[in-house]
Every structure is written in C-alpha cells, then in structure tokens.
Design a protein that fits this description.
27% strand; four-stranded antiparallel sheet; 3 domains; 9 helices; elongated; four-stranded mixed sheet; 11 strands
Length: 266
C-alpha cells in the first residue's frame, strides 16, 4: 500500500483506533515510499465531512540524521488567498515505523466548521488574478485612477468591488489620498505570484501588474519554492513555481510547479 492509498484509507475510516501498521502490514522502508500526491489527498479529504474546506497544496519530504523521514503537507482553506499552514502528514521512525498525523491540526488552524460550509459554491479551487500589464496609463490624478482601479478590481472580484464602493463611498467621492493608497494594497491581493501592483519601473504614470524581478531572483537564490527553466526544455519538479526564460535569459512566464499550468506570461 503506497502513501496515497494509506492516507486515503485512514482519512475515510471511521475507526479512530485504526493505525498505519494495520494498513501497511509489512512496512516498507522510507526510501521505497514515494511522496503522497496532493491531488489524490484532496480527493480523499473531499470525501470526508470533517475535513470539508481543507485543501492540500503541496507535499515535501525531509529525512534527518536519525533516519526519521517526514512527509510535510502544505494545507490551506479552499477559499482563495487564505494563508497556508504546514503540518506533518506521515512520518517514519526506525523504532516505531510509519505514523500519521496533521490533518486535524491543519483543520483546527483554519477553524473550518463544516456547518458553515453547507453551500460549497463559496469554495474556490483556483484563485482569480489580475492580468499582467497596464491598468491605467497617461495620468497620475487620483480622480482618474480611483475609478480605473475599482474597475480592475470588479473584473476579478465583483463582490469585493461592491463592498469597497459601499464602505468607502465618501472617500471615493472625495478622491481621498489615503483611500487611493489603500487601493494599492487591495489590488496587490489579486496579483499573481511574483508580481506587484504599482507604477511601471520605466514609466511612473503607467499603473498595473508588473513582474517582481528582484523577488524572483532572491527566491531562486535562497528559497526552494521556485526553480527555473529555458523554454523548450523539460520542466523541473519539486517546487511550487517554475520560472520560464527565453534563450537570452529574459523571463517569459511563470508555471505552477505541480501541474505545469501557466500562471502568467509576458
């Protein structure tokens, strides 16, 4: 039984006393066990009422000097733009074998109550992002920019745009500079990974969504969340994102490292 089958069985079982050993029998060594698949984990989680609303985004593996192997799951609420929390899914200790934990901790972290999720239509698997490029150019007047920024927000989240128009009606009417600044923060929440909402680095009057080159280069150097590839080469695995460059080294696109889907491109 591989980890996908194992965790699915444990998740779906109503027997609280069921253990990993009950399912594995002769337990394989950790080097023989592939990491669990987030997609299959989510299928199992989705069939269990008490985990409704929880979503596994990524799985990573770590082995320490004691020979203990840990499969870490990065979990989040299925609601878009919710923070993520990392929990141990499955771990192997030489003296104890395989053990399972973590799902309930992740569920408790988000305080997801299935009773509050009767209508699954409010759960969204894929976040909606602003498109890369200009939202407004040729003006720096707040009276021009505020309506254009709100229009951009409406394109990705009509409910949020309506809420902002309602809650900040007076500020909008007065072209309040503090509200204008706050709009940047609101729109930043809808920017895809490794981009920012603001002025173009080469034109202070061109506002929109632009690539954050510094963040990309820093994470490529110091983090393991992103890798890079040249367009046309095989896609690397094991990271959350993949940056695609052309033959000249210029950034062309960002891919989802789990499934290869394009998040944005120039």
């Amino acid at each position: 039984m591989n980890p996908n089958e194992l965790i699915a069985a444990l998740i779906e079982s109503d027997d609280d006393e069921l253990t990993v050993k009950d399912l594995l029998g002769d337990e394989p060594a950790p080097e023989q066990v592939p990491p669990p698949s987030p997609d299959l984990l989510n299928q199992a989680i989705g069939r269990k009422e008490k985990y409704l609303g929880l979503s596994c985004r990524d799985v990573s593996v770590f082995t320490n000097r004691l020979g203990e192997t840990f499969f870490f799951g990065q979990f989040g609420s299925q609601r878009p733009r919710e923070r993520a929390v990392t929990a141990v899914l499955l771990y192997y200790q030489p003296e104890k074998g395989w053990q399972l934990e973590g799902l309930q901790e992740a569920q408790d972290e988000f305080e997801i109550d299935p009773k509050d999720l009767d209508d699954r239509s409010d759960l969204e698997q894929e976040p909606v992002y602003l498109e890369l490029g200009s939202v407004s150019c040729g003006t720096m007047l707040e009276e021009d920019l505020i309506p254009r920024f709100l229009y951009a927000l409406e394109g990705v989240d009509p409910a949020k745009a309506e809420e902002v128009r309602r809650d900040y009606a007076e500020e909008i009417e007065q072209n309040d500079p503090d509200f204008y600044s706050e709009l940047f923060d609101i729109l930043q929440e809808y920017c895809p990974p490794y981009t920012y909402f603001g002025a173009h680095p080469g034109d202070g009057a061109d506002f929109g969504v632009w690539i954050n080159d510094d963040k990309i280069e820093d994470d490529l150097r110091y983090e393991d969340t992103v890798q890079e590839m040249v367009r046309g080469q095989p896609m690397p695995t094991g990271s959350q994102y993949v940056v695609v460059r052309d033959l000249h080294g210029d950034i062309q696109a960002l891919l989802d490292g789990r499934n290869g889907k394009e998040i944005w491109s120039v």
